[in-house]
Amino acid sequence: MAVSSVKDVSSKADLDALVKQEGGAVVVLHFWASWCQASKQMDAVFAQLCTDASQAHFLRVEAEEQPEISELYGVSAVPFFVFIKDGVVVDKLQGVNPPELAKKVSKLAGPPSLVNVAAPESLAARSAASAVPETMQELVQANGTHNLEPLPPVEPLNARLENLVKSKPLMLFMKGTPDEPKCGFSRKVVDSLKEEGVEFGSFDILSDDEVRQGLKTFSNWPTYPQLFCFGELLGGCDIVLEMHKSGELKEVFSEKGLLPTPPLSSASGTLDGNGTVDTKVEPSRQAITVGAEPEKLSETLKARIETIVNSDSVVLFMKGNPEEPRCGFSRKVVEALKEEKVPFGSFDILSDEDVRQGLKIYSSWPTYPQLYVKGELIGGCDIVLEMHKSGELKQVLEEKGISAENDLENRLKQLISSSQTILFMKGTPDEPRCGFSSKVVGALRDLGVDFGSFDILKDEEVRQGLKAYSNWPTFPQLYHNGELLGGCDIVLEMHKSGELKTTLKP
User: Other C-beta atoms within 10 Å of 27: how many?
Assistant: First the structure.
């Protein structure tokens, strides 16, 4: 019998062709990542199953390189396996579980052959030869023919990253070490932190590719270095240097109690076992004075800031935007507001240095983010999160007349039902503002369908609210008869298969 081999999938079209080519046979997809040790362990098992279960077909997909395929099959972590029979997904498996993988393959394609299992040639050539006996032990465990050690447990990557970013109050993920930086960007951030006089831990991402790649997803930040403060991302090189130059970095460190302080007497401070003085003081909401007019705040800038502050009932001054926060503190406040299900406007202070510096004077609040309700400052990250946790934030919003959840829901329902077929998109059908919206418009026009549209770029309340209402995180979104059909990939797939024409026919 010819020995089967694992085939790598290079595109969705490639996958469709391979699945179609195999007809009614069992197809097993392995979604993996080259940087993930757990993926490598399971890949050895996958390769052996491919050799022994020749009646099934084994395909491998690099999850991050093929996001369209990963999204199609609901892949959010690796290793991940999808089982297809007669062109239909019949089962899935996530994580490091060789016995369960072998069991599922055996159930669908028949039990694997265990001939010459002690020395499988297909694995002998692998550099990871040490994994072979463990792999084979799992495969033949039911027969009890080998008494070998099981696979060692693998710590979940997210848990490991969570522990790493919180291992020190201030943690820098960099290339190299503070004494020997391996890139100019890392060196600049190290120099800035040394100038601030703060203690910080560091992790050399060149020494661990799993952490290097995984942290990009964990923090939603694609480059290095990355600086974390009490487990929250402050930013990369440009943001840290800018904060250092403006004095904002010192303000953040001061607020978090990270700056060195003079020795205190026993009456005014407490020394811990390491000789460190605990002087952290939480800001007080009662101490906030909004609208103060220090001598350096011009009337023109003050008027502009007041216009922005009052541009929505709830306004968040943050780094980045709600879809792409540029620091962990901003991200936390955005998440809290979304959990409150309250519509809010936002202003990216990284886009306007005058507003960024002027608002600190206007509000007498030195750091970001800053949250305003009906023109009044609520506070920064710590206060907003504390209020959210205690329920006080919901109470404040209700007292200010912002219990708009039902109003927004009714508005969304009215918009969705305003046309039999309606597309929520970026831009308009004649002038789409993103490629995905343009593709869906093209598909609808190709079918000659009459449809309404709504430009979500012009209404932040609808843009954010519809994500929660539909439980769909991206745009465009296509609705028909009040029901969500899906986003770009699903609509295009339905168009290609003819299902869209059937669904939308009068």
Answer: 24
